[in-house]
Design a protein that fits this description.
- The chain is α/β, with parallel strands linked by helices.
- It has one domain: TIM Barrel, CATH 3.20.20.
- It has 10 helices and 8 strands.
- The chain has helices spanning 18-30, 48-51, 81-86, 97-100, 104-120, 132-136, 140-152, 179-194, 216-220, 237-246; strands at 6-11, 37-42, 60-64, 91-94, 123-128, 161-165, 205-208, 227-230.
- α7 (140-152) crosses α8.
- The longest helix has 17 residues, at 104-120.
- It is globular, with a radius of gyration of 17 Å.
- The two termini are 17 Å apart.
- Bound molecules: 2-phosphoglycolic acid.
- 2-phosphoglycolic acid (PGA) binds next to β8.
- 2-phosphoglycolic acid binds next to β8.
């Protein structure tokens, strides 16, 4: 099993204004005292500079929600890994289903993005998870193992990878996987990775999809759930603090 320290990630998606970012993070950090978990906040790109001063707080990290597969150059509207590093990011989310659904190309370039992020020194929060059709036809394991093979198997090791299992049918829908369903998939992911990587038992696997203050402690009890990736509830400080607390004990 990985070290017992949990990871709680906030994915703000396209919410809040740059000027609101600093007070929101300050409110969260005021209650983030016990430090038995790492906290990674991933705001929109435009908010990163306003929050980066907080990164001196131990256990608190700044992440981005995506990055370009290219190093630099004529790629209008894109953000490079170096830009994220310069703004104080230590982590980047890659493969979020909301991005995968935007274009077929996104799925194809995920391995390239992961390699570039790692080469530049960013840690990757890699998202995988099945759609409703696969879950209903009991094909969820095949769906997820195909994603792992396509996206990660070019890597020699998973040292700088955090995996977030996010069933698409549970994201932003209010419909959460049960903690047993999530635990079963996390164990499956760990087992699948062990076929290729000798230290797969050290990889942190987070659950994401409608995590709320009311259900976080159920996930926190499970052996293979090493933290959570939180969207909507991470925007409400009182709720998010409760989620952090659930993973702090
Ligand atoms: P949600 O989003 O918590 O709002 O379901 C999770 C995610 O998409 O990362």
């Amino acid at each position: 099993m990985p070290s017992s320290k949990h990871i709680v990630v906030a994915n703000w998606k396209m919410n809040k204004l740059p000027s609101q970012a600093k007070p929101l993070v300050a409110e969260i950090l005021m209650s983030y005292l016990k430090k038995n978990s790492d906290l990674i906040v991933c705001p929109p790109y435009t908010h990163l500079a306003n929050i980066s001063a907080n990164k001196i707080i131990s256990g608190f990290y700044l992440g981005a929600q995506n990055m370009s597969e290219f190093e630099s150059g004529a790629h209008t509207g894109e953000i490079s890994a170096d830009m994220l590093l310069d703004l104080g990011c230590t982590h980047v989310i890659i493969g979020h289903s909301e991005r995968r659904m935007m274009s077929e190309k996104e799925n194809i370039i995920i391995p390239q993005k992961i390699s570039l992020a790692l080469q530049k020194g960013l840690k990757v929060i890699y998202c995988c998870g099945e759609n409703l059709e696969s879950r209903e036809s009991k094909q969820e394991e095949t769906f997820v193992s195909n994603q792992l093979k396509n996206d990660l198997y070019h890597l020699e090791n998973l040292d700088k990878i955090i995996i977030a299992y996010e069933p698409i049918w549970a994201i932003g829908t209010g419909k959460t996987a049960t903690s047993d369903q999530a635990e079963a998939m996390h164990a499956f992911i760990r087992q699948t990775l062990s076929e290729k990587y000798s230290n797969s038992d050290q990889v942190k696997i987070l659950y994401g999809g409608s995590v709320k203050a009311s259900n976080a402690s159920e996930f926190a009890k499970k052996e293979n759930i090493n933290g959570v990736l939180v969207g909507g509830a991470s925007l409400i400080p009182v709720d998010f603090i409760e989620i952090i607390e659930a993973f702090n004990s």
